[in-house]
Structure formats: structure tokens, C-alpha cells
């Protein structure tokens, strides 16, 4: 029997030695360790050698449990009071806590001695899982509280099983007792139908189904998004309802900005061209006649610059209103940008209908606008194209209408023109110039020519005017009258203008050194250059680099620059004056308010336009005007330059009138730098 019991005991020990997932310890009547398997070593950190012979209470029990453990062990041996199985927090060798579920067994060995065996199961993973589950519950509750969304759990029939919500003050109100009700019963009928349909979609197709709806509340119209997600394992659907009113308003605002002009609320360029494309498709199907009118306001820039942008904006709004009221409901008026508008005409019987509408617009615009107590007359230049006579795409029609409008400008403005192929050639030329102009500086296609200037009395050369010339391999020689306005429009005039200043001052340095003279150089400044914040610094640095005295540099400025009345122009002119360079009013007599500008700004030179000089030997009124101009300029302590002098008679008269300086073909045409460097008058 003894042998048999020992064999069983060995077999059990063998089994426990192989099972490291369980911690099994054996203790004798004095609580000394008599058995310690691998599972115990892994769980508590003590090896078998370290544990054997140690007291139960000294190994794995915290101090506060020592006495209760000793008492419980004694009671079981002596009184038969069994130690119950329970969850305990014991102690690892390193002092850390070990959570276990501990079961105990007591039996008598072959020597009639009691042995107690403890079987401990590690609860660490269980505790971790419980903690994670609790954390997720807490996190989910926090999400519900922090998220201003409504969460519903519904079944296949749309019945609400569960409900959570954070701050739902702005929602369509959900009663707290909505659980058990049909979700469709909480909404107006159109919205309820959407819930029913999308609930069915979520159940049949799975995944996520989304829709938007709107509800009228006391605070106004609110917009919501509902997302339905199918929980296949539970045959339920989670519904998340979110207030998207602000997003909806933002999207509408973006749409308004994307498709409508912010100033006039008319369709903008993008929407206008889209409507034009749609109109052309409809016309193709129905064979109806349609037309496009390209409108540009005449002299709007002068009004805008002289009266300010605020008045200009008010004027554009009034223009938009006037155009809208003048057209049929079926027609479209849009703003392309600036002072350019587009009109789309439908269902025309022929070209005469487009002409009638264009003439009506011209007539309406002859009536003055009243802006801030001022009456302003603003006329139109109109270009007209018809489909399909002048193109079959939106881009073609717009381009051709622009060309026709440009022809109306050339024809004196306040008129309309139908597109012709010749106009297309003009537009093509402009586009070619613009394209080639973009890289002309890099390709070194520009060259500065110089037209000498002379003292009238002594006939001595005192300096020159710098004039830009452009020769392009594709276009040939392009005149300044062609490319300067385009450069001004595109902004290329800024780097081109700096190129002219740099080349001119470098030439002046060489010219002064070669002749041991102190010549002057005159350079034209365009309106766009005044907007360049680096202009003054660039001029000052270039003067320094080329060792040129500021008084030797003269900037010619047309009246168009001054009419804008912008503060940056005033500041630039003041800075140029302080720098010491000379300021010359160019083309005097061709503008509107030259005398006021001469009083307002610190000009040094007045330049009489060639159109008056050419007539002084033939027209008394031109002679009298030039005489009065010279006298007025001298009274203001200004020097006078006459340009366009071509005959000896003109020079003689200018001498008699007291003109200071002259330039023109009588002396020399503009010539390249190498020729100007050696130029002498009279020529040998």
C-alpha cells in the first residue's frame, strides 16, 4: 500500500512538473515547502532550490497576511476547517504583486502526516482584460459625453434599443424615453422615409450608409448627417447623427465664392463659361440661335483711379443691376473680372436680335449713374459672336468676342462690333507677343536705343532719352506701341523697366568717361513700376554701382501715372525727389489736369508732346499753345523739352520762344549704344 501511494504521488508530481501553466506548491505540517513545480517558479520567481524548506508565510505572502495564513493552516490540520478557494494578491520574489485564484487540498501521507498542496492560477491576464474592458467602457462613456452627436442602436425594424447623446441642444429633440420607439416616429415624414430606406440598405448590403437631412427648429433650419453602420453579429444597426449646419453654411459660402462674384453677386467667370458650355449643348440639340456679348466699360480705370476704389466698386454694382434689369430672364449676365462682363443670349431669330439688345444696352448706359451724389456717365464697348458662325466651343466664342470688343475700343468706344477673322488675327498677334515677351529678357532680345537731346541755344548735346527696342526671332521687330501696353498689363514691365534703368546708367557711365562730360539720361517710368516696392532701393543702388550723380538721371512720367491718386505713387515721387533725381512730365498737353499736377508734384522738367510741335509752323493755335506752355513752365522754374523736332523751322521758332532743350529726327533718330557713344552733331 505504501509503495502504491508513493507511486501515485510520483505520478502526480510528474504531471505537475510538465504543466507550467499552473503553480503547484506542497507544504508539510510545519508549513515547510516540500514541493515546488516549474509553474510556481515562473509565477513567483523562486527556483525549486530556493523554495524547498522555506516557510509558506515567508515566501509569497505579504506581511499583513502571515498570521491569518498560519492560523488558517493550523485550523485545517487541527480542527478540520478547510481553507476556501479564493482570489488572492500574493507576493513575487521581486516584491511585486501577483494576482491568483488559489485552491487548496489537504491529505495524509504514508507516514500519517498532513500535506497541503496549493494550486494557483495566474489572474494577471484576467485582470488586464478586466481593466481594458473597464477602460473601454469609461472611454466610450467619455466619448458619448464629449461628442455632440446622437448615438442610436436600432434593430431590423427600426426600433430603438439604446440611446446616448452628449450636448444635443441643437438637435431635433430626442425624448429620453425614446427606447422602444420606432426611429421613424421621431422625425417628420420626409426624414423618416430616409431613415427607413437607409436602415434597410444597411441590413441588406452591410457596411455604412450615409444621408443628410434638414429639420426646421425654433432656432431656424438645421442640417444633419446620419451614418448607419450594420453590426452583422448582433443584427443591429448603429446610427450616428451629427449636426452639420455650420459645415453646410461653410460649403454654401464656398460655393458662392466659387461660382458667384463677391462684389456684384453675378455668376463669375467659371460659372459663366460653364453656363455658356451648357447653352451651346442645348443649342446644338435644338438648333436654336444663340449669341455671346463681351462687354467692357469705357474709361472705367480713370473713374476708378480718380474717385477711388470704393466708388468704383459701387459703380460696378450699379452696372450689374442695370445689365440684369435690361436683359430677359432666359439670358445670363456674368462678371468675368475687373470691368468686363459677359451676356449670354438664347433663342434668337437672327443677328438682328443680338444687335437690338446691344443697341439697347448702349442706349441705357447713356443715362448717368448716381454714385455718392455724383453723376457719372459710363459707356460700353461690346463684342458680339454668334454660334456656330464664330466658333463651336465656349473658349472660341469668348476669345472671338474679346477680339470684337477690342475692335469696338479701336473704333472709338461706345459701340458694338461683330467678330470677323481679321479681328482674330489681331488677337492672335497680341497673344503671340505676350507669349514671346515672357522670355525676352532671358533670351537677351531687348536693346536700349538712345535719342540725343540738345541745348537749343548752343546746339550742344547734353544727354539722351533711353528708348527700348525689341527684336524677336519669331516676330521680328516689335514696336514699343505694341509690346509696352502688353508688358504693362502682364506685369512684365517691372523687370523690363529695371533692365532699361540698369542698361541706361551703365551706358551713361561709359559715355561720361569716354567724352569727359557730364551727360544726362532720361528714362520712362510706367504706372505699373510705381507699385514695385523695390523700385527706389534699386534705383539708388544702381546709381551707386555705376557712379552716377542722381541729378544726371531723369524720369519721364506721363499724366496717366498721376491720375490714379494712389498713396504709393505720391510716396514714390517724393522719395525720387529726395533721392535727387529729376522728374519730367511727359506728353504735356495731352491730358486733363496737367497744371494741377505741376503744382502738386516736384517736377523739374516739362516735355511738350510732339503733336503740338509738328504744327507750330503751320497752325497759329499750336504756336500760341507752345508759347504759353513755355512761359508757364519758366514761371514755375521748370526746364522745357520739345520732342519731335523734325525741321529747321521748328527749331528756329522754339529758339525764339525760349525753349530750353529739343530732341527729334532733325538731330537724330534713336540709335544703338555703340553709335550713340560716338555720335556728334552736326554729323561729319
From TrEMBL:
<dbReference type="InterPro" id="IPR001633">
    <property type="entry name" value="EAL_dom"/>
</dbReference>
<feature type="domain" description="GGDEF">
    <location>
        <begin position="288"/>
        <end position="421"/>
    </location>
</feature>
<protein>
    <submittedName>
        <fullName>Sensory box/GGDEF/EAL domain protein</fullName>
    </submittedName>
</protein>
<dbReference type="InterPro" id="IPR000160">
    <property type="entry name" value="GGDEF_dom"/>
</dbReference>
<dbReference type="Pfam" id="PF00563">
    <property type="entry name" value="EAL"/>
</dbReference>
<dbReference type="InterPro" id="IPR000014">
    <property type="entry name" value="PAS"/>
</dbReference>
<feature type="domain" description="EAL">
    <location>
        <begin position="430"/>
        <end position="684"/>
    </location>
</feature>
<dbReference type="InterPro" id="IPR035965">
    <property type="entry name" value="PAS-like_dom_sf"/>
</dbReference>
<dbReference type="InterPro" id="IPR013656">
    <property type="entry name" value="PAS_4"/>
</dbReference>
<dbReference type="InterPro" id="IPR052155">
    <property type="entry name" value="Biofilm_reg_signaling"/>
</dbReference>
<dbReference type="Pfam" id="PF08447">
    <property type="entry name" value="PAS_3"/>
</dbReference>
<dbReference type="InterPro" id="IPR043128">
    <property type="entry name" value="Rev_trsase/Diguanyl_cyclase"/>
</dbReference>
<dbReference type="Pfam" id="PF00990">
    <property type="entry name" value="GGDEF"/>
</dbReference>
<feature type="domain" description="PAS">
    <location>
        <begin position="28"/>
        <end position="63"/>
    </location>
</feature>
<dbReference type="InterPro" id="IPR035919">
    <property type="entry name" value="EAL_sf"/>
</dbReference>
<dbReference type="Pfam" id="PF08448">
    <property type="entry name" value="PAS_4"/>
</dbReference>
<dbReference type="InterPro" id="IPR013655">
    <property type="entry name" value="PAS_fold_3"/>
</dbReference>
<dbReference type="InterPro" id="IPR029787">
    <property type="entry name" value="Nucleotide_cyclase"/>
</dbReference>
Amino acid at each position: 500500500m505504501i509503495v502504491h501511494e508513493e507511486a501515485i504521488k510520483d505520478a502526480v508530481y510528474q504531471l505537475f512538473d510538465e504543466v507550467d501553466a499552473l503553480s503547484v506548491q506542497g507544504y508539510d505540517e510545519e508549513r515547510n515547502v516540500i514541493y515546488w513545480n516549474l509553474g510556481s517558479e515562473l509565477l513567483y520567481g523562486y527556483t525549486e532550490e530556493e523554495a524547498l524548506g522555506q516557510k509558506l508565510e515567508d515566501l509569497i505572502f505579504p506581511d499583513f497576511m502571515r498570521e491569518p495564513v498560519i492560523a488558517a493552516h493550523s485550523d485545517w490540520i487541527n480542527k478540520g476547517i478547510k481553507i476556501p478557494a479564493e482570489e488572492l494578491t500574493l507576493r513575487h520574489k521581486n516584491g511585486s504583486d501577483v494576482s491568483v485564484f488559489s485552491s487548496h487540498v489537504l491529505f495524509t501521507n504514508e507516514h500519517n502526516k498532513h500535506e497541503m498542496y496549493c494550486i494557483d492560477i495566474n489572474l494577471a491576464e484576467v485582470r488586464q482584460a478586466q481593466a481594458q474592458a473597464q477602460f473601454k467602457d469609461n472611454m466610450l462613456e467619455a466619448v458619448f459625453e464629449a461628442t455632440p452627436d446622437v448615438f442610436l442602436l436600432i434593430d431590423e425594424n427600426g426600433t430603438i434599443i439604446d440611446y446616448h447623446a452628449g450636448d444635443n441642444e441643437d438637435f431635433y429633440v430626442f425624448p429620453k424615453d425614446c427606447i422602444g420607439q420606432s426611429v421613424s416616429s421621431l422625425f417628420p415624414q420626409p426624414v423618416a422615409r430616409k431613415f427607413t430606406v437607409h436602415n434597410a440598405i444597411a441590413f441588406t448590403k452591410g457596411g455604412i450608409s450615409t444621408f443628410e437631412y434638414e429639420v426646421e427648429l425654433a432656432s431656424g433650419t438645421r442640417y444633419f448627417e446620419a451614418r448607419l453602420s450594420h453590426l452583422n453579429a448582433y443584427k443591429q444597426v448603429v446610427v450616428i447623427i451629427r449636426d452639420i449646419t455650420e459645415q453646410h453654411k461653410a460649403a454654401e459660402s464656398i460655393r458662392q465664392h466659387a461660382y458667384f462674384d463677391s462684389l456684384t453677386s453675378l455668376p463669375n467667370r467659371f460659372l459663366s463659361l460653364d453656363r455658356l458650355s451648357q447653352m451651346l449643348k442645348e443649342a446644338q440639340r435644338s438648333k436654336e440661335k444663340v449669341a455671346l456679348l463681351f462687354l467692357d466699360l469705357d474709361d472705367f480705370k480713370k473713374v476708378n483711379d480718380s474717385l477711388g476704389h470704393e466708388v468704383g466698386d459701387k459703380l460696378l454694382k450699379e452696372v450689374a443691376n442695370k445689365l440684369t434689369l435690361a436683359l430677359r430672364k432666359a439670358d445670363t449676365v456674368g462678371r468675368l473680372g475687373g470691368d468686363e462682363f459677359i451676356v449670354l443670349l438664347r433663342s434668337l431669330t437672327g443677328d438682328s436680335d443680338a444687335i437690338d439688345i446691344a443697341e439697347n444696352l448702349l442706349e441705357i448706359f447713356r443715362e448717368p449713374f448716381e454714385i455718392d451724389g455724383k453723376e457719372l456717365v459710363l459707356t460700353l464697348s461690346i463684342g458680339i459672336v454668334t454660334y456656330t458662325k464664330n466658333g463651336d466651343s465656349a473658349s472660341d466664342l469668348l476669345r472671338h468676342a474679346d477680339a470684337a470688343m477690342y475692335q469696338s475700343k479701336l473704333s472709338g468706344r461706345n459701340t458694338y462690333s461683330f467678330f470677323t477673322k481679321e479681328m482674330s488675327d489681331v488677337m492672335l498677334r497680341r497673344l503671340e507677343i505676350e507669349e514671346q515677351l515672357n522670355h525676352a529678357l532671358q533670351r537677351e532680345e531687348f536693346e536700349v536705343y538712345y535719342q540725343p537731346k540738345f541745348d537749343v541755344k548752343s546746339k550742344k548735346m547734353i544727354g539722351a532719352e533711353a528708348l527700348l527696342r525689341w527684336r524677336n526671332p519669331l516676330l521680328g521687330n516689335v514696336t514699343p506701341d505694341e509690346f509696352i501696353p502688353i508688358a504693362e498689363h502682364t506685369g512684365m514691365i517691372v523687370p523690363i523697366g529695371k533692365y532699361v534703368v540698369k542698361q541706361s546708367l551703365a551706358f551713361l557711365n561709359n559715355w561720361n568717361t569716354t567724352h569727359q562730360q557730364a551727360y544726362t539720361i532720361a528714362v520712362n517710368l510706367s504706372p505699373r513700376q510705381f507699385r514695385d516696392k523695390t523700385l527706389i532701393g534699386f534705383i539708388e543702388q544702381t546709381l551707386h554701382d555705376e557712379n552716377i550723380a542722381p541729378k544726371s538721371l531723369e524720369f519721364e512720367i506721363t499724366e496717366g501715372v498721376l491720375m490714379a491718386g494712389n498713396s504709393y505713387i505720391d510716396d514714390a515721387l517724393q522719395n525720387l525727389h529726395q533721392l535727387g533725381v529729376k522728374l519730367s512730365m511727359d506728353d504735356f498737353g495731352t491730358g486733363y489736369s496737367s497744371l494741377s499736377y505741376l503744382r502738386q508734384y516736384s517736377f523739374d522738367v516739362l516735355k511738350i508732346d510732339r503733336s503740338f510741335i509738328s504744327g507750330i509752323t503751320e497752325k497759329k493755335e499750336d504756336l500760341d499753345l507752345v508759347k504759353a506752355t513755355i512761359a508757364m513752365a519758366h514761371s514755375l522754374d521748370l526746364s522745357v523739352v520739345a520732342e519731335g523736332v523734325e525741321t529747321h523751322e521748328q527749331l528756329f521758332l522754339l529758339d525764339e520762344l525760349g525753349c530750353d532743350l529739343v530732341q527729334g529726327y532733325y538731330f537724330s533718330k534713336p540709335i544703338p549704344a555703340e553709335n550713340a557713344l560716338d555720335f556728334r552733331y552736326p554729323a561729319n
